[in-house]
Amino acid sequence: MNMLSQLNSAPVYLICGGIVAFVALVCVIFMVRAWRAGRAIGMDPAKMKRVITFSATFTVLPAVGILLGVIALSGALGTPWPWLRLSVIGALHYETQVAQAAAEQVGMKTLSAAEMTPQGFATIALLMSLCILWGMVLSVFFNKSYLKKLGGKKKEPGKGPGFGDTAMTAMFIGLVSAYLGSYLGGFASGNGMFAFAGDWKPLLVAAVSALVMAGFTWLSEKKNMAWLEGFSVAGSMLIGMLAAVIA
Description:
mainly alpha, 10 helices
């Protein structure tokens, strides 16, 4: 039995599926309790049903991005583990980045099933779990004070954005800069920056995805189509992937 067959074996499905089922059960319990609480305070059942319907509808397309992540990682890590990671606590950009970095550290040239070993998978799975664990741990000790900074004081007219907005903006600028830097490095490592012999496809995909995201933002903010905001990430990912296939 090769490594990928072991990662897709019934015991692994049972373990990961059991955890996902437990989390899904918790979600159902909270939904039922929220429904009962709404009825108890006199909310209109028809309105609550519409909220549930709209919420379910608007999560379909954004969830496509998560599904794409599971498919992308399943070729090297099997289906159960990426399914567990991206269903419970993981994020698409985090899981793929950490898995690739861990694979390189254990001597793999690429994150692929052909080079996967039991030791390599154990290292990758351990790092994927440990590196994201601190968000939960730090929330236990610092979330209360952090929430006070976010919503404790109303923003005064004429003043800049609050701490939460600044922190999120800085994080995403750093993340995008790191990716673009690696893409530019791959492009420039060809036969010269202006010879167009380097790997230019990542730059093309990044540009197309950015333009699509800008289009979603413009429509949601300028054309009063705020409902599109929930589809912007998945939409830009799908069109960016389409650009990569065409290129």
